[in-house]
Each structure stands twice: as C-alpha cells, then as structure tokens.
Design goal:
Layout lengths: L1 H19 L3 E2 L1 H30 L8 H26 L1 E2 L2 H7 L7 E6 L4 E5 L11 H6 L7 E6 L2 E11 L1
Parallel strand pairs: 1-2
Antiparallel strand pairs: 3-4, 3-6, 5-6
C-alpha cells in the first residue's frame, strides 16, 4: 500500500507540472493570436462601446433591444479578450528549427497518417486551427517518428495508424 500512496502524489505533481508548462505555439500561431487580441482590444472594443452609447441614446433601457444586444456583444468580446490574454501569457513559443531537426511530431508539424483500414489522413498538430495537441490524435502522435505505429483512443473507439511522414 505504501507504494500506491507514494505514486498518487507523484502523479499529481506530474499533472501540475504539465499544466504549468502552458500551451506550445509556433511563432506564426503566436503572432496570429497576438494580432487577433490587438484587433479585439482596439477597433472591435471601440465599435462595441460606440454601439452601446448609440443604443443608450434611444431612450428607455429596459425595453431597448439594441442596448441589450450591444451589452451582450461586449460581454462576449471581453471574454474572448480574457481567453486570448491568458493563452498568450502562458504560451511557450517552440523552436521550430530544433523541432524539425528532432525527427518527431511536435506542435506545428503536419503529419500524414495511414489508418489500419488503409485510409490516408493528414493532420496539422496545432491548437490554433488544427488538431489540438490535447486531442486523442494529438496525444497519440506527439513525440513519435515516421514509421511508428500509434493507437488513438477516441470517444468512438480506439483505432490504429502508422505515421507515414512528418513535415513543417
């Protein structure tokens, strides 16, 4: 029992370290999120504030649909800004030259997979517009090399594939 009790804190510590590492992004992905944040904090925020001011000028706020819609839009905008700030604050920009030289799948890699049924599929490992590194496919292929067999534990059932190629 002592071994099991000791393993639980070690596993919890490993999980905490993984959470502290933050999201891995390529330079281009980091710049994309930074540009989106700048757009939201600048022109988009200004437009929402102007829409609220215009709607206030229409009179009774209790029955003013434009005002409530603009306030709702402001709330959604501020939430997206908070999410982007948090993602960028904790993000780690990966060294793409070192990642490419490693010969294994990393964030930013495009991976060609051949499923066990012969179907070919291509995925980009990216939390910005691709297959998330935290997804079943992402977890299965990260750190693997060309020719490696992987098993993907997906919600609809496990399946196997072989990594055909890795490129950037």
């Amino acid at each position: 029992m002592a071994a099991g009790a000791a393993a639980a804190p070690a596993a919890a510590a490993t999980d905490a370290v993984a959470e502290d590492q933050g999201e891995q992004l390529t330079r281009a992905q980091h710049e994309q999120l930074t540009a989106e944040l700048a757009e939201l904090e600048g022109p988009k925020r200004k437009a929402v504030v102007e829409a609220i001011a215009t709607a206030r000028g229409h009179g009774d706020l209790s029955e003013n649909f434009e005002y409530h819609a603009a306030k709702n839009e402001q709330g959604l905008l501020e939430r997206r800004i908070a999410i982007l700030r948090s993602r960028l604050h904790g993000a780690e920009v990966i060294d793409e030259v070192a990642a490419a030289a490693s010969g294994v799948v990393t964030v930013g890699a495009t991976v060609d997979l051949e499923r066990e049924d012969g179907e070919l599929m291509t995925v980009e490992i990216s939390s910005v517009g691709g297959v998330s590194p935290e997804s079943p496919v992402g977890r299965a292929v990260l750190g693997k090399a060309e020719g490696d067999e992987v098993e993907i534990e997906a919600p609809r059932g496990a399946w196997r594939a072989r990594i055909v190629s890795i490129r950037r």
